[in-house]
Amino acid sequence: MIERHHLQLVKAIEQYGTVTKAAKHLFVSQSALSHSMKKLEQSIGAKIWHKRGRTLVLTLEGQRLLKSAQKILPQFENLEQQLQAMVKGVGGNIKIGIECYPCFSWLLQVAAPFLKENPDVDVDLKNEFQFGGIGALLNYEIDLLITPDPLYQSNLILNKVFDYEQVLVVNKTDILASKPFIEPLDLTDKTLFTYPIERSRLDIFNQFLTPASIGVKQHKTLENTEMILQMVKHHRGVAVLPDWLVAQENCQDLVAVKIGKEGIHKSTFIAIRATDEDNSLIKRFIEQSTLIDVNKKYGEIN
């Protein structure tokens, strides 16, 4: 029978490569770990590892076990945290995933009052996922996912927290600054700055440029909003950002222009597992998120 410690063993072997290092990580002796490895192979009737020099490499059966371990072990950890919090009568921990670069500034405004009102709750933030954001949520790596690209399926609940519009940010001296809206051809000679997101997920491409079979002179990515704005301010190119973020920055040298006559309208969602619909901690966080006005310019975080 495959047990939890077997999955931990497989994960540790894959991560550390040798019995010595894996045993040290799991706080067991090498002999005990070797014995568990042998019993596991006997239990499933197949080899799980083969040696490559001093390193252990997973077989196909071992790789299948590893995939299960990566999905199941976080569920164990999540359940234990919830039960421990219930026993201690405290709030515990909430793990937040984010697929929205500009949402970091908004999230700070949510987290500050939430942490103040819930002194027994910790918040963890994650923006890189082994299986993508939705995969991380369904595999219990995170408890909720902040995303502008929701996936509608029966095992998820999507909570819309705010609407916004994607706009083109240009220097106020740029010829585009005087236009009521831009057209695809307006960007053919421009350097375009965006956040480092796959092009297939960038609205400026999949909703505006690609349908018109139009490209840009150059596409560059930056993670930092302030740096993107500085590049536009100093005539290095144009950028696509949410209207609320541009309004918060209040840069006098920059102008926000509508993208297309109809604009590109979006919404930001908090996705949770359907099984967590009645989780009081998650419900409190979502309620707090709906109180934040993204169109308000924020000062110091309390």
From TrEMBL:
Q: Name one Pfam family in it.
A: HTH_1
The alphabetized UniProt keywords are: DNA-binding, Transcription, Transcription regulation
Keyword DNA-binding on entry:
yes
Keyword Transcription in record? yes
Which residue range or ranges hold the HTH lysR-type domain? 1-59
Tell me the superkingdom of the source: Bacteria
Q: Which family does it belong to?
A: Belongs to the LysR transcriptional regulatory family.
This one is known as: LysR family transcriptional regulator
Natural source organism: Thalassotalea loyana
Gene name of the record: metR
